[in-house]
Amino acid sequence: MSETTDVTTPDQTANKPGSSAEPLLRVDNLVKHFPIKKGLLQRQVGAVKAVDGLSFEVRPGETLGVVGESGCGKSTMGRLITRLLEPTGGKVEFEGHDITHLNVGKMRPLRRDVQMIFQDPYSSLNPRHTIGTIVSAPFRLQGVQPEGGVKKTVQELLALVGLNPEHYNRYPHEFSGGQRQRIGIARALALKPKLVVADEPVSALDVSIQAQVVNLLDDLQDELGLTYVIIAHDLSVIRHVSDRIAVMYLGKIVELADRKDLYTKPMHPYTKALLSAVPVPDPARRGAKNDRILLRGDVPSPISPPSGCRFHTRCWKATEICTTKEPPLLQLGTGHQVACHHPENADDQAPQDTVLLTAAVAAAEVAGVEVPADKEPAAAADSSAAAAAPAASEGAKTSKSDEDGAE
């Protein structure tokens, strides 16, 4: 009896988000560039930098939400960590094992533990196959013979996701969008995976169906002990399902924090702008509490992203340092990371001195002034600000002349 207790207790602890268990998934400086080729010889003339240096961890039983504008690299990131795409650089570890460049043969056993729910429930299902054939495909491809037979197991999966087991012999065109998404979820859960990557699982569904699918994912996580990485652009959905949230912009993570901290104290200006666009159902609070921030300009091209901070071309707080120095992803509070030289809501954060010192040193580097490593943060900030003032003034004049020329 004592041996059984020793074995089961760690597993139960591991399934709790935020526990001290080792990460189930670890991503380190992940990069994916799609080459652009031209000419008869198909020479590479550039690259689309879809994902350009992502680092994060996902612990067992946790739900990590990933949000951002269309084209920021969310879906590409999902396909990279499930190894449906080959990374250009970086590392992906699953349960402590490096799976970054495993070949097809070595990846096949791993497919049992890592599954993906695709965004479009219409194109992700083969219209020529019955639902029974689609959901039973993982058993056939992995050579798994479930207890009780394949048909019985598939019917149990259909019942688990809220479908009628008698739908076994029907075809995808006989189902609605919400039902098709449930079929995709059943297929992903067939082999009882440890990690499920859901790429915008409710974006193609009606609002009423979205709530049903989101609640279904929550119930399945509690029942099966699943770990989720959920990609979405709907901040309301992400807030409901996630434990932690990562905000992406132009191939990079600009903020990563606990759900509550992110929504109550967003630190990156881009996150603040996204949250300001969330509709408020109460008309009395709409104007006073949620002043919408309208970002200027368009999202830059991932073929040639801006230097320094990639958000500086649309940021109302951008200064000279933002155009030249890329901000690192620093932890400003307990579990709250942000990549910004001028973070929002950081006045009450304990490690703020570290942020000031980092920004001060970076500003001094831009101005060509050496700041001693042992200098106090406040003094470093004063000296670097004074040194960088001429450069910033010159940059402001240049920007003004550019605007006049554009007009």
TrEMBL record:
<keyword id="KW-0067">ATP-binding</keyword>
<keyword id="KW-0547">Nucleotide-binding</keyword>
<dbReference type="Pfam" id="PF08352">
    <property type="entry name" value="oligo_HPY"/>
</dbReference>
<feature type="region of interest" description="Disordered">
    <location>
        <begin position="372"/>
        <end position="407"/>
    </location>
</feature>
<dbReference type="GO" id="GO:0016887">
    <property type="term" value="F:ATP hydrolysis activity"/>
</dbReference>
<dbReference type="GO" id="GO:0015833">
    <property type="term" value="P:peptide transport"/>
</dbReference>
<dbReference type="InterPro" id="IPR027417">
    <property type="entry name" value="P-loop_NTPase"/>
</dbReference>
<feature type="compositionally biased region" description="Low complexity">
    <location>
        <begin position="378"/>
        <end position="396"/>
    </location>
</feature>
<protein>
    <submittedName>
        <fullName>Dipeptide ABC transporter ATP-binding protein</fullName>
    </submittedName>
</protein>
<feature type="domain" description="ABC transporter">
    <location>
        <begin position="25"/>
        <end position="275"/>
    </location>
</feature>
<dbReference type="InterPro" id="IPR050319">
    <property type="entry name" value="ABC_transp_ATP-bind"/>
</dbReference>
<feature type="region of interest" description="Disordered">
    <location>
        <begin position="1"/>
        <end position="22"/>
    </location>
</feature>
<comment type="similarity">
    <text>Belongs to the ABC transporter superfamily.</text>
</comment>
<dbReference type="Pfam" id="PF00005">
    <property type="entry name" value="ABC_tran"/>
</dbReference>
<dbReference type="GO" id="GO:0005524">
    <property type="term" value="F:ATP binding"/>
</dbReference>
<dbReference type="InterPro" id="IPR017871">
    <property type="entry name" value="ABC_transporter-like_CS"/>
</dbReference>
<keyword id="KW-0813">Transport</keyword>
<dbReference type="InterPro" id="IPR003439">
    <property type="entry name" value="ABC_transporter-like_ATP-bd"/>
</dbReference>
<dbReference type="InterPro" id="IPR003593">
    <property type="entry name" value="AAA+_ATPase"/>
</dbReference>
<feature type="compositionally biased region" description="Polar residues">
    <location>
        <begin position="1"/>
        <end position="18"/>
    </location>
</feature>
<dbReference type="InterPro" id="IPR013563">
    <property type="entry name" value="Oligopep_ABC_C"/>
</dbReference>
<dbReference type="GO" id="GO:0055085">
    <property type="term" value="P:transmembrane transport"/>
</dbReference>
<feature type="compositionally biased region" description="Basic and acidic residues">
    <location>
        <begin position="397"/>
        <end position="407"/>
    </location>
</feature>
